[in-house]
Amino acid sequence: MLLTRRRKKEIKIVEIIENFLKAFLKFEEIYKKYLQGKIKFYDIEKFIDNKEGNLLFDLKESSHFLFRYSDKSYIKERERLFDLVMGSIFHEAMKFRENFYQITAYRPKYVKFKKRKGISPYERSLIDQFRKIINRAQKGMDEGIKETRQLFIDAKSQLEELLTEYWRNDLLVRFLLENKRLFQKVYGNKKHEEMLLKICGDGWSEVYNRVAMSYLKGKYFQFAAKYFGKAKKINPENISYAFFFYFSSAMRSYYENRYYSSLVLFKKMTRFYEDRFFPYLKQTIETLKKIEHEAKEEKNEKLFKWTKNFMNSLEDLLTIKEKSLIKDSLSI
User: Fold this and answer.
1) Is residue 209 domain-resident?
2) What is the pTM of this model?
């Protein structure tokens, strides 16, 4: 299936958000160890590196790809600013890594060399140069990690504002709902609920409905049924929630070869049918044809008869609707 430009951006946005949250937490671990004087080079070498597959590098590259190198007419000012901060975080972190490496790799040798006896004037001059280099590296390291942390904090606030602009992105709603702990570790417990409700706007039933529709589009019927069920439980009067709950549940049963269960659920679905659900009626009939074929192959007369009768009633409804659509089109 070919993805539209909008869908590609939606997928990339979720990737950026996930990587940022993980990078933020990883850097906080590093910062805490640094303040405690317990940090080692191996704590940062795989996090701060100029290589593909590295979390911070991938975050920076994804941000540049989406918010810097894409068609400029599709990039918002807030996105440009966020990308600028992502680039700054990466480069400040790389400078911190270099200074930290100088401290850990060369300072011990410098201290050992300085303690030698019988140092020549030339060696003494070198020692003085090393001392200046080490001092600069230490100062740069102290300033660098503080600047990097402040940039992370600024980006955290920027991202919170950006999230509300992506309210149409069902993949984002799904990510936020299913990565609650990750989001809460960065933004706090209350912010998770506030953000989801702000994006969806119509309470928790709509949050679950948005996530369920996302799964339904991808034909992940098990998860679609799960979240339509949650939405239906909150708002049992909503016809759409009920229709799609039974539809996705029936499709799940079909793919699990539970054909009788699928038929029962499809029948329950029809109680909530409205014209706007017409495409799913056609999909239901196509599924029933497959069940009918399986029943015939397995010589299951009972299943064959049940399926045939139910399918005939739906095809009558389908014919009426298709005739109505043709009539409407001719009258335009």
Assistant:
1) no
2) 0.84
